[in-house]
Amino acid sequence: MKQFFTNTLLEWNKNENTRSMPWKGEKDPYRIWLSEIILQQTRVEQGWAYYEKFILNYPTVKELAAAPEEAVFRLWQGLGYYARCKNMLAAARQIVSAYHGHFPNTYETIQSLKGIGPYTAAAIASFAFNLPHAVLDGNVFRVLSRFFDIDTPIDSTAGKKQFAELAQELLPHGLSASYNQSIMDFGAVVCKHQQPACHTCPLAGKCKAFQLGLTGLLPVKAKKLVIRKRYFYYLVLQYKDQVFIRKRTESDIWQNLHEFILIEAPAPEDVTALQSTAAFKNIMKDIRYNTDAVSGTFKQQLTHQTIYSQFLMLSVSKKPEMPGYMAVPRNQLDHYAFPKTITDFLGNRELTLF
DNA sequence: AATGCGGGGTA
DNA sequence: TACCCAGCATT
Asked: Reaction catalysed by this chain (predicted)?
């Protein structure tokens, strides 16, 4: 059964796998690493252009390590999960300082780098160095849970352990790179989450989930997502050609990205009423300002939050004290990284905002 | 062991 | 709307 499973996947990869990607077959560990960080929880099509941008701007790990943080974040802007960007830059600097710019070549040293966990370490170890470590990503969970009919929740500790051990047992000797590539592509192309192609699947004959009609029920997840709503009111405060922004530093969404002056309300608020709240007065104090315009509501759906944002364009004729915020010329805003909802606003308004 | 972190695609 | 995507760090 094990032999059938691995051989079938390797054969499928050799003869029928048409999934092409810029980093496939890549042997440079730096490029493999870059692609793996970008692709964490991210679809291949979504990460593709970002990979190309990063390779173009930073062809080697030394160049990435030497880059200013703000420039790297600006390249990452729009991709999400921004801690990846922060950790990636830290890891690049680790590689230069501790390994003289040579990518570490054991599973343990690879995983010791910032932002690299079990999956990414196995991916780099196998693809770059053909080391015998099985990858365990969303695709592998799905393929294994279905073929072997395993209903242990994949988001439980027991599940992760069970699937990791099975994946490692299945890894064919000396073929780590091609086998890991095979099973992930197979999960993405054939054994898909929705509408798996069981009618043409070369594993279907021995797939337990297919035989039992359980493909729609596997893999199992134990936890259900709770989504909370948040209401952001941004004061786009302008003085001459400058606008006030700050970097988000709290342990919250969009850490290390920039934003305008934020008032978060516990519930939807009328923007006129907002201007007489304590929160607003605490920021604007007795500053004389003019309300030039008010935007509509921008909605952004994150995985576990829904953000409703509205932008108030305020202008002042005297430069105010605004602790924690910096006044930046509007033509330099593109040096800073912003969350999607703000780049949407800027894109929609840039002709009329200033 | 549980929670939080983006943005986009699909049904 | 609900779920998922070449997961990881933090608590």
From this structure: Hydrolyzes free adenine bases from 7,8-dihydro-8-oxoguanine:adenine mismatched double-stranded DNA, leaving an apurinic site
